[in-house]
Amino acid sequence: MKRFVIYLILLFLAALMLMPFAWMVLSSFKEVDEVFTYEMTWLPSTLTLSGYYRALTEQPFLRYGLNSVWVSTIITTIQLITSVLAGYAFARLKFPGRGVVFMIYLSAMMIPSQATIIPSYILIRKAGLIDSYAGLTLPFLAGPFGAFMMRQFFLSMPESLEEAGIIDGCSRFQVLTKIVVPLSKPALASLGLFSFMGAWNDFMWPLIIINQDSMRTLQVGLSLMRADLYPDWPMMMAASVMATLPIMLAFLAAQKQFIESLTFTGVKY
What we know:
This protein has helices spanning about 1-25, 50-55, 60-90, 100-105, 115-125, 135, 145-155, 160-165, 170-185, 185-200, 205-210, 220-225, 235-265. Helix 3 (about 60-90) crosses helix 7, helix 3 (about 60-90) packs antiparallel against helix 12 (about 220-225) and helix 12 (about 220-225) runs antiparallel to helix 13 (about 235-265). It is built from 13 helices and no strands.
């Protein structure tokens, strides 16, 4: 009975959290004058795809989406590479001051991202990277969180596997690429999911660094749709639904590996 009550409470909380998303999806199929009325209804009177059509034809939604896909893919790919290299170095390579260097590197996680926006903008502007993909991606190609996460996963792996590879004649880099990385798919999938979500949902940095409409990402483009005096709510809801789908698909694709990484990755120093 106690477990049933707990499940009932969790089910209620889950339904409560899903209500805004359900409202967004249902509103995307409504007519313009149906979203906000005196008698607000959840279900549309007639299902229509006009909101999706207007989002794809009257707005540069596809261009914004391609920019977001390109930027998120670059950041995720390079961040995985840098995180694996840094995490493996801190987990396996023995060098003087390794613990001190790691703690200094890890302390960067304590600095709010908002505190580094102005210095990052000044550096990007002096480098002439305003309104460019390099300016959008360069500050996020490496970070302490990814290195910390991969280090923790590498520490949970038995060193005997790597020692066997070294005995068979593998170099340290070959051990990393042929033994360690293939066994790290759960952690890589989880880190890739976090990196992709962070890059896809980022709003502040693209808003600051991009001035050209053709270079704007999806989150900035969605905010511009709300700038009208009389916003087209079904179109905005439809665009929001389409902007959310890649994140949902990415999570569903990496769900199994994400759960496995939680069972293997521990807080080990």
